[in-house]
Design goal:
54% of the residues lie in helices and 8% in strands. The chain is α+β, with helices and mostly antiparallel strands. Helix 1 crosses helix 6. The longest helix has 29 residues. The structure holds glutathione. The site of glutathione has 12 residues, from helix 1 and helix 3.
Length: 205
C-alpha cells in the first residue's frame, strides 16, 4: 500500500495528501518531521537524503519532493483528470506547479513569523516585506484566473494543488490583504472540495 511520511501541518505534505485524496487512493500516513522526528534516522535518510517531508513509498518505489510526488501520482492514477493528457495543457499545469514555489518563498517569512514565532521574537520588517512580495506575486494568478474556474481552465488539475496549498496560508495568516476577486473566487471553489477542506484548509500551526 502507498505510504506517506509527513506531519499534516506541513504545506508540502498537504500537497501530497490533497492529491491522494482527490485520486481516492488508499494509503497509510506516518507522522514525521519537526516534533515527530523520524527524518534524521538512517532508515529515513536512505529513502530521503534531504531529511525533509514528504516522502512516499509506492510498493517499493520511494520518492521525495512534493510537486514530483503530485506529478507522479497524478500521472499514475489521474490521467485525464488531475493529469492533463494533452501535452500543452499538462505543461500549463506544470508551469503553475513550478511557479507555486516562487510564491511559497515570498510567504515563508510571513507564515513562520506570524504562526511559528512567538510575538516577542518576530521580525516585523521581514514579515512586512514578505507580505508585500506575496501581494505583488499574487497579482499574476489574479490576472490569469479572470474568466477561468481553475488555474489552467475549466477543470481542476494538479496545477491547482501546490498553489492552492500556498494560497490557503496567505488567506489564513492574520495580515492585511488587498481585494483579489478572481483569486478569492478560485479559493472558494477549492474550498468546495472535500479533500481540500480535510487536509489543506485546516487551522495553521
Ligand atoms: N522542496 C521540498 C521541500 C520539503 C520541505 O521543506 N519540507 C519541510 C516541511 S514543509 C520540512 O521537511 N521541514 C522539516 C521538518 O518538518 O522536520 C518539497 O517540496 O518536498
Amino acid at each position: 500500500m502507498l505510504k506517506i511520511w509527513g506531519r499534516t501541518n506541513s504545506v508540502n505534505v498537504k500537497k501530497a495528501l490533497w492529491c491522494v485524496e482527490e485520486l481516492g487512493l488508499k494509503y497509510e500516513r506516518v507522522d514525521a518531521g519537526m516534533q515527530f522526528g523520524v527524518t534524521k534516522t538512517p532508515e529515513y535518510l536512505k529513502i530521503n537524503p534531504t531529511s525533509l517531508v514528504p516522502t512516499i513509498d509506492d510498493d517499493g518505489f520511494t520518492l521525495w519532493e512534493s510537486h514530483t510526488i503530485v506529478r507522479y501520482l497524478a500521472a499514475k492514477h489521474g490521467a485525464g483528470t488531475l493529469w492533463p493528457t494533452d501535452l500543452e495543457a499538462r505543461a500549463d499545469a506544470e508551469r503553475w506547479m513550478d511557479w507555486a514555489f516562487t510564491f511559497q518563498g515570498a510567504m515563508r517569512n510571513v507564515f513562520w513569523g506570524l504562526i511559528r514565532t512567538p510575538p516577542e521574537k518576530r521580525d516585523a520588517k521581514a514579515i512586512e516585506e514578505g507580505r508585500k512580495k506575496s501581494i505583488e506575486l499574487l497579482a499574476i494568478p489574479e490576472s490569469v484566473l479572470s474568466g477561468k474556474s481553475f488555474i489552467t481552465g475549466e477543470r481542476f488539475t494538479m496545477g491547482d494543488i501546490p498553489l492552492g496549498c500556498e494560497v490557503q496560508r496567505y488567506m489564513r495568516v492574520p495580515i492585511e490583504r488587498p481585494a483579489f476577486p478572481h483569486v478569492e473566487a478560485w479559493f472558494e471553489r477549492l474550498r468546495e472540495r472535500p479533500a481540500f477542506r480535510k487536509f489543506v484548509d485546516i487551522p495553521l500551526s
